[in-house]
Amino acid sequence: MFIYVTVGVKVFLGFLILLLGVHILSKFRAGTIETRRYLEEHVKNLKSTKKRVQQDIIRIKRENDGLSERVEKIVKLFETSKSIGATLSFENIYKIIGSTLGGICDFSRAELVIYKSKDEEERGFSLVRFSPEGVPEGENIDHPTEDIFLLKNILLERHERSILFVGDVKRSLLAKQIHLESPYQSFAVVPLYTADEPIGHLALFDVKEKSAITDLFAASTDSASKDSFNIQSLTILAPQFALGIKKAALYKQVQELSITDGLTKLFLRRFIMERLEEELNRSTRFDLKLCLIMADIDHFKKINDTHGHLVGDVILERVAAILKENVREIDLVGKFGGEEFIIVLPETEMPEAKQITQRLCDLVNEKSIHAYDEEIRVTLSLGISAFPGQARGMQDLIQRADEALYKAKELGRNRVEIWSKS
Length: 422
Description:
Elements: H1 2-86, H2 90-104, E1 109-115, E2 125-130, E3 136-139, H3 146-158, E4 164-166, H4 173-177, E5 187-194, E6 197-205, H5 212-216, H6 222-259, H7 269-286, E7 290-297, H8 300-307, H9 309-325, E8 332-335, E9 340-346, H10 350-366, E10 369-371, E11 374-376, E12 380-387, H11 394-410, E13 416-418
Parallel strand pairs: 12-13
Antiparallel strand pairs: 1-2, 1-6, 2-3, 4-5, 5-6, 7-9, 7-12, 8-9, 10-11
């Protein structure tokens, strides 16, 4: 019986252990499913977080690239402003403006118009044109188009200071007012001011669709807003351009005042002597010919005594203008004494010098000069000497031209004489 009881207990205990195992196993399975669900949810959250982080990284990178680009443009603006501030020559100013325009705008033609008084420039402005790459193509174009005159007048009448843009030339009232027609489709104008003084304007023709200027008027898209910073750059730089032009003009004026005669606007004797010495050295180095003209107004003292010094000043001014306007670009004209002028003809042999000198003599003689209420006929006596054939240096050259001049006086005035030993 004891055996049966023992076996029964063992069976009971085994059954009890089995039940306990089943219970534990079920609990374990339930825990495993819950853990799996938790882990799956956690992984899902991690993936979502990863996606958001990746999107944030892309956004931050894009913003960083945009900021880097803006910083780079700001640096370029600063460098451009610094370059403008560091130069005093028109040539360098034109190069800086051209390279800046070429970098921020697309155009088929660009013009810088600098306003001047009638005393400085007959047509009232000087003109510089730029290639589509922004390279200055030359100053004071011989045949400016009519639109330049009209546009200048309109801008001055309106006191216009903001950038003007015309997207369709055919439908634009402004384009009609300045008689601007084909082949241009669009244009923009940037007025240039220093404080309240108009210095000039920049005109850009055939502004392309993707350029900075048209993007200013485009819809607000990412590309448009990014490119519109270029027009903002141009707006910021316009006063810098104007200031650079003003500084260069003032510097040129100071330079001219220090080397030119206030009345005749011809080079002073000191400067012309320095330039003559340079040209003689160059002629010696490169085996070139050079001629020198000395000219004197005939009976000038009598004109002063008869009509007064104010009339005499007008005579000096007008004769100087005739001489300056009728020599070549490479020639140098200076005031040597009271009514005496000196003209340096580099790279010139005597036959050509004789033609130039005779033409000057004839031009002065052929018309009366109007001075106040007087009409006065003026003549010149001129003498020529040549280097190296007739002189060994500057003093010889001047002395011999002067001797030829006085020979012309002795022979009756109003004539040209070439120096000779006899």
